[in-house]
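ok so I'm stuck.
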Amino acid sequence: MPYRPARVISLALAFLVAGCAAQVATPRAEPSPSASAKPSPTNATTDVLYIQGAGSGADARISVIDARTGTIVRDLPNGVLSRDRSLLYATQTLKGGTQTQIRVLELASGRETRSLTIDGYFHTLFDYYAPVGPAGDGSWLVLTGDPIKLDDKYVTRYAVVNTLSGAASSIELRGDSPYEFVAVSPDGKRMYFTDLSSSSQPVGIRAFDITTRALALAPVAGSSWNKWQAGGWRSGIVTSADGRWSYSVNTGTEESPFILALDAVNDRAQRIELPPDQAAGFEKAMLWSLVPSNDGKVLYAVNPAIGAINEIAIPSMTIRRSAHIPVSRADGGALAALRQALFPVADAKRLLRSGATLSPDGRTLYAAGERGVAVIDTDTLTERTVLAKDVSYDTLSLSPDGERMYVITPDAWSTIAIIRTRDGSSAGGFRLPWYPGAIVRVDLGG
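replied:
not stuck anymore, here's the structure
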């Protein structure tokens, strides 16, 4: 069950602490969803941002925003991006839900280049709030139908569409729980799903052969584990550039975290066990991030909240180095303790989906922790500094030149903050009238 970061601190808390914490301001009303973005004309940037999350359902959209003023320049339909982030795939229901049209648009201009139509009702896929773009070799778009429960079984429907030829295959899976999509093989012949049904032990990844329409009776070789379903958490899935490998960090309350690496070419998966001292409680376990190196030869698993970073060699799937970095700690003061006591869920449900990113030259890794952004040297796996130490961020996105970092702040005002990566100073920021789900692209301004 996905959790949206808490954005509103109750007035009750303000009244309770007003007598002993005069510095706490009374919260203001949240902006109306119909309001325009609040500009900050002093922002030191001319970049253009593409931000997902405005509206919901059929009205959802991607807003193109002038980062200097915070002004919404135009809106695009909601959807997912191609691997090179140049194209947008958006779905539209036709003929009373019996058909789905896939519109292909140029992201920069919004111009529709072509469209594809398939039978059935489907829409683009999201992993929690992160959009899932074309899979496999980059030409296979996975769409999903809304799961339904029928005769005590969950019915999960997916479609895999070749974005070049328009060929499509739809599948329907039945089980005690919905099947969650993981990957498509590079050739588009197999789909992989996580089987979470209580009747399936051990829990694992199952392969569906699109040609024979058969679901494997046993988990993919090497992919089984037992405790993830009962008490664990999965990070966002990261896919290699060639579509062969998919990775995720899996954690459990009673076991060490591990990386599940799925090989969609050889139909195998393996566990990469992380050091036992990197186990963490529920809140910190949600702050793992995975980032592949720019050349695809290394995978970084980082969690500043527990002070851990691992460098995994690919394709041997072995931990080459592990290191400790200073722990990024949340405020432990009296006000934070009182807020947590009164509203324990508010701070416990923070889940990162784009919590780390590499600099364009690959020498610096930026990773969000409980507070601030750790700046890590990838040559030595040591922390150089921490940017914006007193603030929590949910999403990190760099400008193409690596000079500016755009971050989503989970506050009552849906703030996009702009941080200079050279010294951590502020380059400004702006507020949005809706909570942003993801910064899907940043373009350099003129």
